[in-house]
Amino acid sequence: MLLSLPGIVVMLFSLWHAKETALQESRFQALAIAEQLATQQTEILNEIEIFTTQLASLKDFSSPLISECPYYLTKVQALKPEIANIGITNLKGDPQCLLKGVKEEINIADREYFQNALESKNFAIGFFQKDRSLDTLTVNFAYPLLDDKQTPYGAVVTVMTLDWWSQKLANFHLPPNAIAVITDSHGRIIANYPNDPSLFGANVSHYGFSIEQPAVNNIVDFKGVNHVLHSQVMYQDEVKNTLNVYVAIPFNNAIKEANHLFLNTIFAFIFMIFILCIFAHIRLKQSVLTPIARLTTAIKELASGQLPKQFSLNSPELNTLYTHFEEMAQTRLNAEANVKRQHDELSSLLNALPDIYIRVNVHGEVLNLGGQISQLNTSVFTRSKLHLRDILDEEKSKQLLKNLPAKNETTYFELTENNTTAEHIFAVRISAKQNSNEYTIVLQDISEQKQAAKASHLASLVYSNSSEGMAITDPNGMILDVNPAFCKVTEYRKEEVLGKTTAILSSGKHTKAFYYAMWQEIQETGRWQGEVINRRKHGELFTEWLTIDTVYDEYHQPQRRVAIFTDLTEKKAADDLIWHQTHFDHLTNLPNRIELKERLNLRLSTHCNPAEPLVLMLLDLDHFKDINDTLGHYYGDELLKLIATRLQYAIADLDFIARIGGDEFVMVHTKLVSDAHIKKVANDVLKAMSKPFHLENEEVYIAASIGIAIAPTDGDTSELLLKAADQAMYQAKQNGRNCFAFFNLNLREQAQARMNLLKNIRRGIEKQQFDLYYQPIVDLDSGTIHKAEALIRWLHPRQGIISPAQFIPLAEESRYINPLGQFVFTRALQTLNILREKIDPNFQLSINVSPVQFSCLDSGIDQWPALLEAANLPPSAIVAEITEGLMITPEHLTQQRLKSLVRSGMELALDDFGTGYSSLAYLQQMDADYLKIDKCFVDNIHANNQELALCKAIITMAHQFGLKVIAEGIETTEQRHLLMELGCDYGQGYLFSKPLPEQEFIALLNNSKTND
After folding, report:
1. How far is it, in rounded angstroms, from Cα 846 to Cα 911?
2. Is 803 helix (H, G, I), strand (E, B) or coil?
3. Which string of DSSP letters, residue by residue, matches 470-493?
4. Do the bridges between strand 907-913 and strand 878-883 make them parallel or antiparallel, or are there none, so unpaired?
5. Which pLDDT value is given to residue 459?
6. Omega of the bond prior to 841 within 30 degrees of 0, cis?
């Protein structure tokens, strides 16, 4: 039992040592993981800082800020998945650009990270918060926007969601049951592993961690499990705000394993002691002590290099053991010699290579050095025991240890070494040895490769991604290389042009003198630029802006020529398209008014003489609006195309044809020298137009009116000619349409008179030169006057009274009828108040209402009921006289207004009945009150003649419909008596009175009242 005591002591010591080793390994693991995790997260934050700073330097965010985001910002953000949102704010914290979410009613002026960025003028990190644009938990970062004086005028804000950060943290491989937490400066959790979003924003003390004391290898208890805790600052901005990482590694399992091992060892040891005691008692003397003593003597002799001559242990097992021992010794000596030789060869090889080789253990202790160690510029290699920090500085040695790979794996990264002379970049490759804690580190100096690759990459990017075509040739123009843009523009593949001269692109559009001058300038100056027309592979011509430069060798001899060209084809095509769209009709592709005038001016300058007249025919389609209204505008456009085509190919001696308006075409002739020839061509045009046009399944007929003007007789400018042809065309329409008319001076005089009349109407309205005259409407039975018609008269200061027949048609066409109609209505109301007060309280006035007033939105007719009410007059005091055609107009607004007047109580009279449509169906539908027989029916009535019978039929029909009848134009007593016999209700005409001014009309009424 005494012999077992040392074993027990050893086992107890082993238990203690195992526990300490487990704890120490957990601490080292926590430290290494925390540093690796901090390094990883710091790289993410550095990338965010660089990204935010680069955004702030963009010209699109220079002062003053615009309130919209650049179009490429979404693509830039897609390259950075860690960035959830990007915002540009002004100095007040109001978002000017917000990539996602809504920016209304959002202001970040209260955010501390925004204030810190403006105060420090540097990158600032935020704290745990709920982002108001994304409505999610985030950590925000800001960098100030600075002007040339380094004065902030806003900030760039980048946003990282806590969910994304926790997902990134989950991708970091941690030991089972380990805990990793990232916090802001206030100790609030912004990312955790295992991921628990409910803890976002909670204090880190939830895990048992403390932000008051530095946590370096502390022991904490979390949910009954002991953990080794390590924390460190992984990022700090200019105002000392930090982001911290906490890593806790559980070590209970390691302690349990050590305890379990100890118990198993104790039980096994006690059992073995018990068995050994039994066998030792039986055979100690017989089988152990004596053979061991003899074997020990033999081993000593064998160790001295001599084998006993007489040796017998009387035991086959011990003899076999001795034989194997001898073989093992010989094998070991041979192996050691072989290993030494290989080691020397490998060392020589490593020292001959340009790289640096370092073999270390997991703690960074250097086990072997090789290769070009002198590149590190250090002199500590004479020491017997080295650490990585002795070769490299503290920071880089830590970086190497943090990147040590797992067993059977290799890690690669780059390391930058700065010294007093230059910066060296090393490619680092670390390989882990199998079944050991040793690592081989290979450092390869790639500084020159990096610089060369950077320069080459930049040149390659410019060459390959330039939108301009580039070609490199020898001094004689033989192509040595081209870029992708060259192939895209010329349509040649690269291999098709290599070895060929640039003449492969020649279009034949330039003379030899052009190329001679080009090469002469290149030979003299080494440079040429200009516009060249070349040919693509498939024969298509294209225009390019070409610049040729020369590269000289050290003897100033031409070595290479570099040609750079920009394809101007699209620009030329765009210019041509704009010109064509400006000068040609988009529907028929005929010249438009602009092109017509330019061509006319050109021809007038060369053909403007009586011997070579220039004939202009302006064709306007008759009733083209009916086509659009019935078939639709699509078929109307198709018809215009067919007409353009027919006129182009069917008319002889046609110089060209243009379309200058919706349904107006102009044909220009320079070969028509006589009136007969002109008339023949005009008749040919009308004949061509008389043939049917086929629109799908529809057969359409349409006529045209043509106005003809001849230069220089009718005008020597394009404007005068077009105006003359237009006036002649309107004359053709007045002549019945579907014909032609020549321009004459009378037309110009009529047009001038019409223009003067229109100008005078406008001036007359402004100067209030219009007044109302009143013609009585007499009750034929009683002879009394209770009604009158208000008629407008123009009291011109120089021309006297102008009849409505002269100015009303033009007023309707120019819409001046609207203010005139309003004047008539308001003036009639004033007169009505006087007449009802002095003559008859039930007096009624009739006013004429134009169809234009019903169809115009701003005619004022909708205000009439309100004006009657304001004048304290009943609606029935006014009778609106309308024409028959107004009843059947399909316009919704017109019908709506007619019905509205009827509903208001105003009475209607159908004026000039019998001269228009005289539709009995519409007469029945329309709620009219009076029917007026036109003067043309009354003029010739005599006893038993046809006109009298017609008047009788009208009166009888009107009475059947419940209408009162007013006969206009009564001038004789016979006409009055005949109408009275027919039952006519009222009469109006010169027999009773001509239209009179207001005061004379009132005097007439007073006299009539006195006579009664």
Report:
1. 11
2. coil
3. EEEE-TT-BEEEE-HHHHHHH---
4. parallel
5. 65
6. no
Degrees, nearest 5: CA angle 554-556-558? 105
As a whole number of angstroms, the distance between CA 900 and CA 231 comes to: 87
Please state, as a whole number, how many other Cβ atoms lie within 10 Å of the Cβ of residue 612.
Answer: 13
* DSSP 8-state assignment for residue 609: B
Distance CA 241, CA 125 (A): 7
Q: Which helix (H) or strand (E) holds 835?
A: helix 817-838
Q: Other CB atoms closer than 10 Å to residue 563's CB: what's the count?
A: 20
Token pair for 389: 């920090």
For tokens 């709620």, name the residue: 927
Sheet bearing 664-669, strands edge to edge = 656-659, 664-669, 614-621, 704-711, 740-742
Instruction: Identify which of 21, 33, 28, 22 has the alpha carbon closest to the alpha carbon of residue 254.
Output: 22
| Dihedral of the alpha carbons of 407, 45, 189, 98, in degrees to the nearest 10 | -140
Q: Please tell me what DSSP assigns to residue 379.
A: -
Cα 1006 to chain centroid, rounded:
79
CA-closest candidate to residue 53, choices 148, 123, 125: 123
Number of helices followed by number of strands (H, E) in the chain? 30, 38
- Matching residue, tokens 């070769």: 391
Any idea which residue has 């000068």 for tokens?
583
Dihedral of CA 794/795/796/800: which sign? Answer: positive
- How far apart are alpha carbons 321 and 35 in whole angstroms? 53
The torsion defined by the Cα of 870, 871, 876 and 879, in degrees rounded to 10, comes to -110
Give the integer Cα–Cα distance in Å for 142 and 159: 9
CB of 727 within 8 A of CB of 708?
Answer: no
- What pLDDT digit, counting tens, does each position of 303-324 carry? 554 545 545 555 566 566 656 6
Q: Are strands 964-968 and 930-933 parallel, antiparallel or unpaired?
A: parallel
511 token code pair: 């003379």
Nearest to 877 by CA among 911, 831, 914: 831
Please state, in angstroms and rounded to a whole number, the distance separating the CA atoms of residues 836 and 816: 30
Catalogue the E-assigned strands of 237-319: 242-250
d(CA 475, CA 397): 55
> Is residue 211 within 8 Å of 245, Cβ to Cβ?
no
Q: What is the mean pLDDT of each run of 10 residues along the chain (1012 residues)?
A: 60 64 67 76 84 84 82 80 87 86 78 88 89 86 88 90 84 81 88 86 81 60 74 84 86 69 75 77 61 62 51 59 61 69 68 75 80 65 70 79 79 76 79 79 79 71 78 90 89 90 88 91 91 90 90 89 87 86 92 92 78 88 88 91 91 89 91 86 92 89 93 86 91 91 78 81 89 94 92 90 86 87 93 92 93 86 91 93 72 83 89 64 71 89 87 91 92 92 94 93 86 64
